[in-house]
Amino acid sequence: MGLLENSSLRSFSMIRAGDHAKLSFHAFGTNCEVILRNEEFDPSAEIENDVLTWVDWFEKRYSRFCNNNWLSKVNQNAGISEVEIQEEDLAILDACQYAYFLSEGIIDASHLPLAKIWERARKHKKLPSEYEIQHASSLVGWEKVVRSNDSVFLPSVGMGLDFGGVGKELAVDQVARSLTLHGVPNFLINFGGDVFAKGKSLENQAWKVGIEKVGGGIQPICILNLQNAGLATSGNYQKFFDLNGKRYGHLIDHRTGYPTIFSSLSCSVISPSCMKAGILSTTCIMDGKKEGESKLDRQWDSAGCIQDFDSHCFSSRFFQLTK
Which residues, 6 or more positions from 198, have their beta carbon under 8 angstroms from its beta carbon? Predict the structure, then answer.
């Protein structure tokens, strides 16, 4: 195995072993992989180069941690001027609108002002003041974002967008569409636990994906047969910080201005797209175990598993979608 370089200079490895060929690389702050059936992998098709080039473009354009990209331009011009959008930007903006609608306003891409003050709090180990929280909260509101067919505008100075709530899951779905257009009938995409599986792993076998048990352990809580579906997991039990003797989850609830309090919860959701699975799993974490289970039961095409350190529960359609 050797590390190769694609045209975007992103390191990756392509390994062919046994029944599968696996493309591995690092993006979105996590380990990513695309797995194909070996007999269907055609090196001459340059699928790996197409995937890596697109992922590189997507991350550089929409990550808030990349300087001087399109997103930073939108945020820097808040309260000043509108910013032109290209046709390819419509997908990420539509994803933000969809997340806001499906989550009933819980997932809001304009939450950046709150995210920033809590990032400072974590870094400097000092809670923000109530004034800081209230001021940042006043700048949040997806309904305030002014969008037309060719521009987007944040009307108040200090507003800002962060696509972290939908970006990685959208990328999974977009790569799945690209592979389908390449004529690849069977594949598994896994971007740091955000997954989409199409077709079968082997001739008579669905893709097998495990759901990790909260608190760790060798055995997963269950192993899914995933076929033509997305899977996403949200949780605070591994991502949290402590201040003044109190534990805070990494997800910020803009309704209160504070991080989520459900620091032991994890929610894994199966849905027709990875993006929908991600929206639902995050929404369940934000609302807690009881309300999360109720929300999942209202989704006819989705199901999930919500767990904490003491117990777990499956929504009503979970085993129908994974058998």
Answer: 176, 179, 180, 184, 185, 186, 187, 188, 227, 228
35 CA to centre of own chain = 19
pLDDT in tens, 254-290: 999 998 876 667 899 999 999 999 999 999 988 888 8
Cα-based distances in Å from 307 to 138, 211, 267:
33, 10, 6
The total of other beta-carbon atoms located within 10 Å of residue 261's CB is 16
pLDDT higher at 243 or 102: 102
User: Using an 8 Å Cβ cutoff, are 214 and 237 in contact?
Assistant: yes
Question: What is the longest distance spanned by two Cα atoms in the chain?
Answer: 61
List pLDDT tens digits, range 58-108.
Answer: 999 999 998 899 999 999 999 999 999 999 999 999 999 999 999 999 999
Domain 206-323 has CATH 3.20.10.10: no
Partners of 267 in the beta sheet? 234, 306
* 79-160 to CATH, choices 3.40.50.920, 1.10.3980.10, 3.30.450.40, 3.30.43.10: 1.10.3980.10
pTM of the entire structure? 0.92
Classify residue 187 by burial, with Cβ atoms within 10 Å: 0-12, 13-18, 19+: buried
Q: What is the 3-state secondary structure (H, E, C) of 187-241?
A: EEEEECCEEEEECCCECCECEEEEECCCCCCCCCCEEEEECCEEEEEEECCCCEE
Q: Is the pLDDT of residue 192 over 80?
A: yes
Domain assignments of the chain as residue spans, ordered by start: 1-62+166-201, 79-160, 206-323
The owner of tokens 């175990």 is: 289
Mean pLDDT confidence for 243-253: 80
Class of residue 86 by CB neighbours under 10 A (exposed 0-12, middle 13-18, buried 19+): exposed
Separation of alpha carbons 136 and 142, rounded Å: 14
